[in-house]
Design brief:
InterPro entries: NA-bd_OB-fold, Ribos_protein_bS1-like, Ribosomal_bS1, Ribosomal_protein_S1-like, S1_domain
Structural class: alpha+beta
Distance between the termini: 204 Å
Oligomer: single chain
Family: Belongs to the bacterial ribosomal protein bS1 family.
Function: Binds mRNA; thus facilitating recognition of the initiation point. It is needed to translate mRNA with a short Shine-Dalgarno (SD) purine-rich sequence.
GO cellular component, one term: ribosome
Number of strands: 30
Strand order of the largest sheet: 3-2-1-4-5
Radius of gyration: 57 Å
Pfam families: S1 (PF00575)
Mean pLDDT: 82
Low-confidence stretches: none
Strand content: 35-45%
């Protein structure tokens, strides 16, 4: 009896499972959506069938199947064992996941729900958190196709005590991409032409899929011509032929080009666009320093702001030309090594100073509007949108320039004479005072110092008299009114009197005639003495003059 009792107790100890442990059981029946499981020692429990299914799948369970369940309690109020397949799976999963985490191995799971900041993943019993940033290498807008799909994940972090597991799908994709990338790159060589699919377009270029690895096709390598935006010539999903320009083995970055597969238009630039030839081009870009003009696809030249207009200085190029405008330009210089062409816009038109010089020789009268008044003269607008300048000294014969300029105002229409045209310096000198010729030169052209002329008295002043000769005004000082001091009185003359005077000076610079009655009288006396007598003969001056007068009679 003692032996039997010992064996019986030993049997009880061996067969009776501990609460809170995972035990094996046998499905003995399936009814009402539950599986009835015999866990031994005449203990049976019920488990919902959904605990035996994976997310999105039906439970595959049949009578007679052996399963592992978690024994929560040996008996409940109904006398049944309280068991859980889900908790058993969780315990089993945690053991498996801890080993995988320690060995940095991948684990299989399925995304089954969406939570704030990411998704929930069933890892075969344990629920993990998949952050949104770890779903894919690129942001995922629609995660629908990934839901319920069994796929590998990398465990990033786990804490069994708190029940937290964080996984990543992105790490798996990056690893596989890196392997694929390395394989594709190993088969590529610089200079090789390959086909690719445009995956993404940015401001600066496009990313092209070369079969598992992306290469950057920069906007400057798409065409020989200027490309403002890659979307001008590429569309997403388009298959294009590109050349591998450079491969960085360390960073696995690949630079691609399309224009390298086309003929370089610069090889023929010098032959097609000789210096000083004129061509029609299209304005492609305007900057502060000039405008770029496309001569042909891939060949652009710069029209510097200084070469845009003969007359419009210090003006923004955008006020002379506009984008997409067709213009005629002249080739000024070509630097094939630097791929630069210097163009001129103004050279396609005649120099307006040359045209003006041909049409208006010196001495020609012109008419124009006063554009500007400065401290040194007037600027007059002329034909051809150019200006001429009238210096202060060329405003008037009679007035000081500073005084004469006060009579002029902006926008006044004036007439002037062309004095000089300097085409090289782009200067035109004008004169207002020379209109109608040089009156002083005309009036004094036939006279010289010592000549006796007749003048008309125009004004009587205290210091002398004002007279006019051939339209030129002059002034005879009191001391020059007579040889006789008693006769040096201005009041003895009347306005309108005609008086003979001797020219003592002709000053072309000051445009003044020096006149003297006294000098004329002295000259006449000397002439009479020389002709009719001598001071040594004892004859008086009255006798000599009387004889001279009689002779004149």
């Amino acid at each position: 009896m003692e032996d039997f009792e010992a064996l019986l107790n030993e049997s009880f100890e061996m067969d009776t499972p501990d609460e809170g442990s995972v035990v094996k059981g046998k499905v003995i029946a399936i009814e009402a959506g539950q599986a009835i499981i015999d866990v031994g020692y005449k203990m049976e429990g019920r488990v919902d069938l959904k605990e035996f299914s994976n997310p999105g799948e039906e439970a595959e369970l049949a009578v007679g199947d052996e399963v592992e369940v978690y024994l929560r309690s040996a008996e409940n109020a109904k006398g049944e064992a309280v068991i859980s397949r889900e908790m058993a799976r969780r315990e089993e999963a945690w053991d498996r996941l801890e080993k995988a985490y320690a060995n940095e191995e991948r684990v299989d799971g399925a995304i089954f729900g969406r939570v704030k900041g990411g998704f929930t993943v069933d890892l075969g019993g344990a629920v993990a958190f998949l952050p949104g940033s770890q779903v894919d290498v690129r942001p995922v807008r629609d995660a629908g196709p990934l839901m319920g799909l069994k796929q590998p994940f990398q465990v990033l972090k786990m804490d069994r005590r708190r029940g937290n597991i964080v996984v990543s799908r992105r790490a798996i994709l990056e690893e596989s991409r890196a392997e694929q990338r390395a394989e594709v790159i190993a088969n590529l060589t610089e200079g090789q032409a390959v086909d690719g699919v445009v995956k993404n377009i940015t401001e600066y270029g496009a990313f092209v899929d070369l079969g598992g690895v992306d290469g950057l096709l920069h906007v400057t390598d798409m065409a020989w011509r200027r490309v403002n935006h890659p979307s001008e010539i590429l569309t997403i999903g388009e298959t294009v032929k590109v050349q591998v320009i450079k491969i960085n083995k360390e960073t696995h970055r690949i630079s691609l080009g399309m224009k390298q597969l086309q003929d370089d238009p610069w090889d023929l630039v010098a032959a097609k666009f000789p210096l000083e030839t004129v061509h029609t081009g299209r304005v492609t870009n305007i900057t502060d320093y000039g405008a770029f003009v496309e001569l042909e696809p891939g060949v652009e030249g710069l029209v510097h702001v200084s070469e845009m207009s003969w007359t419009k200085k210090n003006i923004h190029p955008g006020k002379i030309v506009s984008t997409s405008q067709e213009v005629e330009v002249m080739v000024l210089d070509i630097d094939s090594s630097k791929r630069r062409v210097s163009l001129g816009l103004k050279q396609t038109q005649r120099n307006p100073w040359e045209v003006f010089a041909e049409a208006h020789p010196e001495g020609t009268e012109v008419e124009g509007e006063v554009k500007n008044i400065t401290e040194f003269g007037l600027f007059i607008g002329l034909e051809g949108d150019i200006d001429g300048m009238v210096h202060l000294s060329d405003l008037s014969w009679d007035e000081r320039g500073e005084d004469a300029i006060q009579s002029y105002h902006k926008n006044d229409v004036v007439q002037a004479v062309v004095s000089e045209v300097d085409v090289e310096k782009e200067r035109i000198s004008l004169s207002i005072k020379n209109l109608g010729g040089d009156k002083f030169a005309e009036a004094t052209g036939g006279v010289k110092r010592g000549t006796i002329v007749t003048v008309e008295v125009t004004a009587i002043e205290e210091g002398g008299i004002e007279v006019v000769y051939e339209g030129m005004k002059s002034f005879i000082r009191r001391s020059d009114l007579s040889r006789d001091r008693a006769e040096q009185r201005p009041e003895r003359f009347n306005v309108g009197d005609k008086v003979d005077v001797r020219i003592t000076n002709v000053d072309s610079k000051t445009r003044r005639l020096g006149l003297s009655i006294k000098a004329r009288e002295i000259a006449e006396e000397k002439e009479a003495v020389a002709q009719y007598g001598s001071s040594d003969s004892g004859a008086s001056l009255g006798d000599i003059l009387g004889a001279a007068l009689k002779s004149g009679d």
